[in-house]
User: Fold this.
Amino acid sequence: LGGAFDEVHEDGPGWVQHFSGGNGGQPVVVCALFGQPAVAVDQEIWNALGQFGRGTYVSGTAAVGFPVASGERPLITVDEPVELAGGAWGPGRLVPIIAGGWRWEPQVAFDSEACRDQDTWAVRRGEMDLRLRLAIRMQLAAEDLRITELGRTRMLSGLALTGLTDLLDGLAKRYGLEAADITWQETPEPMGVNNNRFAAYQRIVSAADGRPALLGSIWLTLPAGRESEVRAIVDLSVDFDAIHPAGVPATPARIPAELRIAPGELVRFFASGWLAAEALILTTGHRAVDLPPAGASRLELYIQNRHPAGTGGQRVLRTEDLVDLSVFGRTRKSQLRDLSVGMTAPLGPDTEGNSSLVRQALVRMASDFGFTGAESAQL
Assistant:
């Protein structure tokens, strides 16, 4: 490694020492998390670590951590992704960008703590029958983000590429509803707010009697002041009574099996909703993946029954009558109401990777709610 430029010193979550690089001529840094083995990395990698989180409350190696040894590699070079550990943002990795530089990505993880956005923006009960919701909180170190009129136009163009509109049209066709020439429109107050910090849009497909049968909704909230959390929510709400009015009242209400949201449609909604949630950042003129991170972004996926038993309404529904969950086996719960799951994941996954993570999240969700065949489900 050549001669040492300095003595071993403390930096962020561990110890560091810089070397000249010896005959190789490229400076090298030896680092070690406290109590862990040391690893040598190219100076370029070490320099990249110091760039993350600038201007936020935690930055550099304190935020993203140190490179960790992988296999038998004595020296970590710039040729491939670099695994990281020990930072306040949680485990992750550096990924080289084709155009030059590095991008930080959090390690994918699933959890059972999804609750923060179960009721954000829209009331939970008493409207329509079923709500599918994807909510994402993106940690972005970008000050002075503002929604512009040009950005709104760009977002609506990008939204068409996410597959969300196609999913709504496909459901409308399956239910015998007319969706031609229906576009995304700004959601009026009080359900929606539209200014330079908030954006809210909806797409309504009506039944024959004029009632909303399918409702797509999207919301974006930019951070205030020096906050870094950008929030986006994508909803799909379904009113089965508008689609197929019940002839004879019953408790619970009878929903024809052929109207249930199918497993494949669940995957498509959450996958396209994820892309749509990130596309909402286009209202500011930026792509989410291009903005500097300020931590790990987190998603929450929800399947919500708007009329479950015990809520006092005249219309009572069973969740398993709204969504076909048979692929997960039977549930051990005596009464199934809402289902949810949390996920930490990188921004900007490709379509295939996006769908794969959604399938894994749904399996975790089913397992959390006691389904006997969750682990062997084929989605």
Summary: The chain has eight helices and 17 strands. Residues 351-368 form the longest helix (18 residues).
